[in-house]
Amino acid sequence: MSVHRVSVAAVGAGTMGAGIAQIAAAAGHPVLIYDAVPGAAAAAIEKIRDRVARRGNDPSALNLTAVPDLAGLAPAQVVVEAVVEDLTVKRALFADLERVVSPGCVLATNTSSLSPTAIARDLLHPERFVGLHFFNPVPAMKLAEVIPGLATGTHVADTAAALAESWGKTVVRASATPGFIVNRIARPFYGEAWRLYEEGAADPATIDAVLTGCGGFRMGPFALMDLIGHDVNEAVTRSVWSEFGFDSRYTPSLAQRALTDAGWLGRKSGRGVYDYRDGGTPPAAVPAPPAPFAAVPAAPGDELTDGTLLLPSTGRTAAELAVMHGVPVVVTDRALNGEAATAVAVAASPDTSPRALHEAIGMLQELGRDVYVIDDVPGLIVTRTVAMLVNAGYDALQHRVASAADIDSAMRLGLNYPAGPLEWGDRWGLPAVLDILDALHRAEGDPRYRASTLLRRRACGSPPVNPV
């Protein structure tokens, strides 16, 4: 099928469906929109036109039509579904669509975590069904995941990819496994933040500040979950967890479940981790005050007062490192780019003197960083989070979810990560990442921190085996 000006239908007129309709219409396609809620499709079209006009473009050039029922989608050559993330609902919808559209129509689901193979199970022609996952906000985000189901025809996957590329998206291809690329690999970004919070290591504002200022992430995990919506984010985590047989790597947070139970869903409800009511914004994290004496800029590995060592995190607590070295230790978090970092987390062993800790804080402040003193937890904040993201990337590569290039591209473009997980592993060095994971595994006693077999092989110098 040629993708030039094919008739496109969007089912679901919410944020995602309207976004898909907008980019299709902007690319010159006639677009039909259907939503089960009366008037929702027409309202979505008005919002699309308003958005386009505000950006200085001519909304009258968009060929958008609301239809009152599924039968109105009969002319469509490609249908993209963006309804509630529920397997039963999606199966029923596509069974109805199959009775309406032409035999050559491509059926696509924008599911973020459900298996296209499972959704297409009862279709008469599952070979024309494919996953086509966009990211919110659809007009701005540059990524699209194409996910063939077990029965998807090669030409159908190619058509979906070509269509998304013609809409200005970078396309990555993923196998039909839970979470695909982005939502599978991203789980530790949220999961480690919740674990740090639940363990009392730091408050959400501090965790967000360190991951942005030290890790280089555009948004911290708590601010991002408030933006996504905790109902959506928790549901994806729970879906991936369930589909992986309740693997502890994906265990949902009880604290996040409490937010969803309370209806504190984030920005859209006015309250989530942070309070947005009455124009509220996330609170600023509170760094350590200026050190009470002048300090000379230092780097991890330097010696402080009384022989105290300033060491980079290796996944071990400062207390454990103090025992290993026989002297007090202050541990600093790892940065993506030390020269560009504006924040850093530190933790001190119990035998560290106040003067030595102040000296470490002052040295880091002289480098232009806000310093956050947190509880002495293994891996601090950035170190443990990034090590887990690298591990998730290698686990996905090992299980042939996607190619190495697509894994890194997906995480950079789909979530605006400062680096792809495999790239980050190369920057830190896989032996160092493996050491961090093994230290976390020993300290926590939790199999969530077990290292990917492929990562361990690569860290030990094994050449790639059957690379994808």
Short description:
It contains 18 helices and 12 strands. The protein has 468 residues and is α/β, with parallel strands linked by helices. The relative contact order is 0.09.
SSE topology:
Layout: E1 8-11, H1 15-26, E2 31-34, H2 40-54, E3 64-66, E4 78-81, H3 87-98, E5 106-109, H4 116-119, E6 129-134, E7 143-148, H5 154-166, E8 170-173, H6 182-185, H7 187-198, H8 204-213, H9 221-228, H10 230-243, H11 254-262, E9 309-312, H12 318-325, E10 329-332, E11 343-348, H13 354-366, E12 370-373, H14 382-398, H15 404-415, H16 421-428, H17 430-444, H18 453-459
Parallel strand pairs: 1-2, 1-4, 2-3, 4-5, 5-6, 7-8, 9-10, 11-12
Antiparallel strand pairs: 6-7, 10-11
Describe this structure in words.
This protein has helices at 15-26, 40-54, 87-98, 116-119, 154-166, 182-185, 187-198, 204-213, 221-228, 230-243, 254-262, 318-325, 354-366, 382-398, 404-415, 421-428, 430-444, 453-459; strands spanning 8-11, 31-34, 64-66, 78-81, 106-109, 129-134, 143-148, 170-173, 309-312, 329-332, 343-348, 370-373. α1 links the parallel β1 (8-11) and β2 (31-34). The radius of gyration is 24 Å and the shape is elongated. It contains 18 helices and twelve strands. By secondary structure, the chain is of the alpha/beta class. The protein is 41% helix and 11% strand. Strands 3-2-1-4-5-6-7-8 form an eight-stranded mixed sheet, with helices on both faces. A four-stranded mixed sheet has the order 9-10-11-12, sandwiched between helices. The mean pLDDT is 94.
